[in-house]
Automatic annotation (TrEMBL):
Named cofactor requirement(s): pyridoxal 5'-phosphate
Name of this protein: ornithine decarboxylase
EC number annotated for this UniProt entry: 4.1.1.17
Assembly information from the UniProt record: Homodimer. Only the dimer is catalytically active, as the active sites are constructed of residues from both monomers.
Catalytic activity: L-ornithine + H(+) = putrescine + CO2
GO molecular function: ornithine decarboxylase activity
């Protein structure tokens, strides 16, 4: 069943119950297809799914059963994964700045792999998690990405990383490997290969100090909307691995977030009011918001893709009209689509927004008393 058919069925079921809330349609099969594609294309790289991207329990359980690991960044995410019986070896605490109580928890729970990118964090780890396997995060930015992470995280691989490697030696901390994150959502495919070259140099430098690292973490960044571009990532990653880490003694992981979930979720939202504004545009008001599922899309100015489900079939083909689509909160910046030509809609129609699985459910707020949406999967159909 495609997403439009599924959405129509749910709309009908809900209307019988008098429920007109917006909702998600989730397709777990899509997550599974992504996993199988990953294993086929980059078999050397074990994915550790980034929980912050979408922490839906069914998604997490599916990935657990498929055998992925998990990237957690807080106490709550760690406890969530442990409660799903994920082995502590399959968790990486991949936040380079850890609150002490969270770091202590990771030590107590046997989560050994932790990342860092500064001296101060290394001293903290030495004190509160001395038996960890530390992973040094370097900065290696893609030339383009939706979310650049390098401005906040990662040390300079040339000027700072060697000093931090020396400090590990001095503090007798187990330096396990190197991590990077090129930025979330990139089409600079070659960046992975270049980053792996930089990681190799640090492996070589560490070896001059008798430190034998065993682990490379290539981070996330992979766009998940369009599976056909995955070959381009794979080519770059496989070339980087073959040249720099041909031996299978080196464990290679990745922390994909959006790749697994983006296309698996759609948001289905209703037009609750239509207004012809004096500025000549049509204003539509939805029961969704930039304070809910559209927060990240709004912050990073992502173009939304959508389809329409009409409450009743129009007599003739609706014309494109200059329109603004507003969110449901009382805030006037709550604009989901601004000044765009879209086919004319009527009150009661539904808009299905595609590729809404990444950074949507986990960032949605309860502002103005609007709640997180229900998620419908195949079991509900
Ligand atoms: C957010 C994040 C990820 C996931 O990134 P995607 O671009 O969604 O793949 C992975 N690792 C770290 C450290 C992150 O902060």
């Amino acid at each position: 069943m495609d997403v439009i058919q599924a959405a129509k069925k749910i709309i009908n079921q809900k209307s019988l119950e008098g429920n007109d809330d917006a909702f998600y349609v989730m397709n777990l099969e899509d997550v599974k297809i992504k996993y199988e594609h990953w294993v086929e294309k980059i078999p050397r790289v074990m994915p550790y799914y980034a929980v912050k991207c979408n922490d839906d329990e069914e998604v997490l359980k599916l990935l657990r059963d498929l055998g992925t690991g998990f990237d957690c960044a807080s106490k709550k995410e760690i406890l969530q994964m442990l409660s799903l019986n994920v082995d502590s070896n399959k968790i990486i605490y991949a936040h380079t700045v850890k609150q002490i109580s969270h770091l202590k928890l990771s030590a107590e729970k046997g989560i050994k792999k932790v990342t860092f990118d500064s001296e101060a964090e290394l001293y903290k780890i030495k004190e509160f998690h001395p038996n960890s396997k530390v992973v040094l995060r370097i900065r290696f930015d893609a030339s383009n990405s939706i979310i650049n992470l390098g401005t906040k995280f990662g040390c300079n691989p040339i000027t700072e990383a060697p000093k931090l490697i020396e400090l590990c030696k001095e503090l007798k901390i187990n330096l396990f490997g190197i991590a990077f994150h090129v930025g979330s959502g990139t089409t600079d495919f070659g960046v992975y290969e270049r980053a792996l070259d930089a990681v190799r140099k640090l492996f070589d430098y560490a070896e001059t100090m008798d430190i034998k690292m065993k682990f490379v973490d290539i981070g996330g960044g992979f766009i998940g909307k369009d599976l056909s571009i995955f070959d381009d990532y794979a080519k770059s990653i496989n070339a980087g691995i073959e040249r720099n880490f041909p031996s299978s003694d080196i464990e290679i992981i990745s922390e994909p977030g959006r790749y697994f979930v983006d296309s698996a979720f759609s948001v289905v939202s209703q037009v609750i009011l239509k207004k012809h504004h004096e500025d000549g545009q049509i204003y539509y008001y939805l029961n969704e918001s930039i304070y809910m599922s559209f927060l990240i899309a709004h912050l990073y100015k992502e173009q939304l893709e959508f389809s329409i489900i009409r409450a009743s079939e129009p007599e003739k083909e609706p014309k494109d009209k200059l329109s603004t689509v507003w969110g449901c909160t009382c805030n006037s910046r709550d604009k989901i689509i601004a000044d765009r030509l879209i086919p004319e809609l009527q009150m009661g129609d539904w808009i299905v927004f595609h590729n809404m699985g990444a950074y949507t459910t986990t960032v949605s707020t309860a502002f103005n008393g609007f709640q997180n949406l229900n998620i419908f999967g195949s079991a509900d159909l």
